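Lay summary. Proteins are chains of building blocks that fold into shapes, and those shapes determine what they do. In this project we predict the shape from the chain. Here is one chain we studied, written as its sequence of building blocks.
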Amino acid sequence: MEVLVYGRKKPVYPYKLTTAERLCIENNWTFTFCYQKVWEYIESSKAKDTCLIRYGKWTMPHYDNYFPIVLNKGYSIWRNANKLISVPLLERNKINVPKHFFFKDSITEDDLPVLGRKFNHSRGTDIVYIDSLEQLAKDSSEYWVKFIPSIAEFRVTVFLNQCIRVTKKVPRTEDYDEKIRSFKRGWMFKDLGYLDFQEEHEIEYLTEAIKQSIRAMKVLELDFGAVDVLIDTDFNPVVLEVNSSPHLNKYGRQLFSYFVRTKVLKEDVDYTEYSRLRIRKCRPNRYFPKFRDIRKISNED
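And here is the predicted shape, written in a compact code that computers can read:
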């Protein structure tokens, strides 16, 4: 079966290609950023033998009906991106999310500090820390999120209701920002292993973070994505947002490809075909945390 990836064309600086483009080059898949190309598959009847992967692109959601397999349907991506819909939806389904403000006038002094955000953002470059009403009055953000003091922040990658990867935000520079954990402010993601956790309470709060992430994906009806979740000072997980087109390094792209081919396309693929997976599988503490089979944690729900 052919694979058509419908994603964004413009990469984030300093990258020359988007993750979707790199996935296609490395796997001999077809990439397009134009909905007309998707329509060509439908019009020529190629769609019936094609798996459509929407990598953050929701436009023309009705096209999904013509493909036998669609990963991340257009409507699900649109709903997730629309904070006015996704945030209340997660709250109604008992997913712990920070308080959101969509009107500046609704924020009082008691609500401060807040983080100013843009609806379209990448790698946290839009985040503004606001701790006074004077600063808030001058801020041009499009919505605001209650700032939550935390002890850790994770990114949980979920594929078909299964946790396949967990990374933690760690400092990458000496002058990192203690309040805002973004790449621009001196932070980076690091893959976790069982040696990173020594205390039982650490295992417990990470397990809860993974469960919350999988539930959030189910509620939003997304097949794959990366969930940013922090642990507050009371050791409770708080889902910040769900990324339907996460940036992936080479290991992440090989992991994504492996699960697409084995779980979706039903191909007989051995992980040893992938260099990064082969290396990490030989060192289990760098592949999946040994203390829990977090890949199957969703089976408990």
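What the prediction tells us: The mean pLDDT is 88.
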